[in-house]
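Could you join me in thinking about how sequence relates to backbone shape in a protein? Would you write everything just below, so we can both look at the same thing?
***
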Amino acid sequence: MTARARGWALSVAMTMLSAGSSSRAADGVSVVKDLTAVIALLALPCGQVAGVVRQGESDYIASCRDGNRYRVFINSEGRVVALKQ
């Protein structure tokens, strides 16, 4: 995947993360799926996100089933970043 395609895919995923939904349960499922996709696109080990804690707008702590934890956020340059916790 080219860097441009990866950047586009990550920006779409983060847009979906910040978009509103009508129910909290649907929001939770959507955020878990979106964070799983973002972490996979960044080629980080995770498998599937099992839990999410929202830190702020477009800023999440994702706990993976394999035990890894990542802070996923948009940095000052507008890029999606996942930092291992």
